[in-house]
Amino acid sequence: MAVKLPRGFRAGATRAGIKPSGKPDLALLVSGLPAAWAYAATRNRAAAPSVQRGRELYASGRALRAVVVNAGNANCATGERGFSDDRRMAEAAARRLGVVPEEVLTASTGVIGVPLPVERVEGGLPQIPLTPEADAFAEAILTTDLVPKVAEAEVAGARIVGVAKGSGMIHPNMATLLAFLVTDARVPQEALREAWRGVVDRTFNQVTVDGDTSTNDLALLMANGAYGEVPLGTLLEAVEGVARELARKIARDGEGATKLMAVRVVGAATEEEARRAARAIAGSALWKSALYGNDPNWGRILAALGNSGARFDPLRVRIALQGIPLYAGEALPFDRRAAGEAMRAEEVEVLVDLGEGKGEGVAWGCDLTEGYVRINALYTT
């Protein structure tokens, strides 16, 4: 069933010939009204021109009207040409929509170091049919993803729809993910921006697949006000729910993954330490491998905790897996075979209590499989 965008938004996609597969690879997301927006992007020092341009637009404070996305070419590490091609992509989208380039955000994802065939972008943009549905856009932005990722919510009549892509090269701050959330609620831009960083930190920055942080990722929230005002706190809670659902879908679709891992840490000294500890467990290659093999090797969880930087006394730590207590200051007796069987589920939960305070945090990851190695061993060959 098609997912309808909030009032005033349209989207679409086409096959521009950027992806060797011939699949849809060029997409537009458009607001009929100037939209307030909030933005977060990779902290990778080798950030792509699209990210650097996005930061400049963000600092200007002006409204946003559209996003143009190329999926198939990162347009990163391509010298001065990369910056020129990124500008041309924005200018072509602006001509298509009758707006100024400074109202158009660009996003690119794909192979690093290959010049962008910008002429194909310029030729493809006029061919994109714009509709009030999100599905074509969600399909076109994928790279190694197996499935599109869409989430939605409604608050007092206003709608929120989120679309994301991400499967590999995923680690906090941020990851190879693109996330676009839109709402027809009216929100002051300052309030939107103040809240968005916290939402991103608690959701997209809590996803890890392989410990690598991308050069191109971004997370965007647009609010065009076409519906009107709704209670801000309720709206932001729903926005975070949509972002959380997208984050979980990204982790579940990790390259080669067979299961989703949810790590919940409670009893930390602070929320930040809880989130850091959860990320360390979700990102441990040793524990991710054990997860794939259905091996309840809790020692790898404890070791990852010890490297997280979170404060704790090992004698007060408690660890449970799928609800089965494994450790409480010392090893607990448990049925290893039963625990291994419980790990065969599509979603596996790790619960850790640090016994230090009231801080809580959640992170999402996946198992590490031979499939991940195959995908990335042959990525450009």
Automatic annotation (TrEMBL):
GO terms for molecular function: L-glutamate N-acetyltransferase activity; L-glutamate N-acetyltransferase activity, acting on acetyl-L-ornithine as donor. GO terms for cellular component: cytoplasm. The record marks 175-176 as: Cleavage. Signal peptide: none annotated. Its EC number is 2.3.1.35, 2.3.1.1. NCBIfam families: ArgJ, PRK05388.1. Belongs to the ArgJ family. This is Arginine biosynthesis bifunctional protein ArgJ. The lineage of its organism: Bacteria, Thermotogati, Deinococcota, Deinococci, Thermales.
